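Dig into these lines:

——
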Amino acid sequence: MKRLAGFSALFGALAAAGAAHAQTFDATPVKDPDSTIAVEMRFGAYHPNVDSEFANSSHATPYKDTFGGSTRFMIGGEVDWEFLHVEHLGSLSLGGWIGYTKATGSAKFASGPNAGQPSAETAALQVIPMAALLVARLDVVARETAFPLIPYVKFGLGTAWWNSTNGSGTSIADSDGTLGRGHSNGLVYTGGVMFLLDALDRQTAKTFQVQQGVNHTYLFAEWTVTAFDGLLQTNAMNVGDSTWNLGFAFEM
């Protein structure tokens, strides 16, 4: 709770400094000791590619028909461990990432005179993707120049657990008795850039480091491809996507 309170205090101080124009942008290169752990919290759009597997055959769109075409969102978290730092260049880390998204809509009648039409029952699809990642950050830009930016790339192997439910919360079974749940394996690719928030108020950042043990804080934006289309599997549902994410990162 003390660390969470510290996070709130940091963001409040930075916001107040920006609103009052009391702090000027500090372009002093970062000279702090290297961090070994990074924690990220992210938020972004997500639209599972369920319908893509029917594009060249029946052209069916079961996901769109049930959940519509509006964009859903995913929340997620990641923890990275830096195992190599090359001076005047950057770092390599191993990380683990997990997310959560859910889509809801009206279940369709499977048979009868209203077959294919929406019913009063609610259908839902929950997806929980996770991945092991190799992360490369070019932090020399922020550490040794006047630009507080860190470009980075990530690559990894992951899986997405998914579960389809009805209004009663039970898994939906199709005509051959297959339950509406499973997992889909795939590769994960990410490219993005981090903005070093310390540059907005160096004194607040140093205080946060001493009191909370957080060396640096960042705001980041990234583009991620989650190719959860059934790597080394047969008949796996494609629940991957290509999408953007925004978030905060903390180095400790």
Notes: Strands lie at 37-46, 72-86, 90-108, 118-137, 149-165, 181-196, 216-227, 241-251. Residues 1-5, 13-23 have pLDDT under 50 and may be disordered.
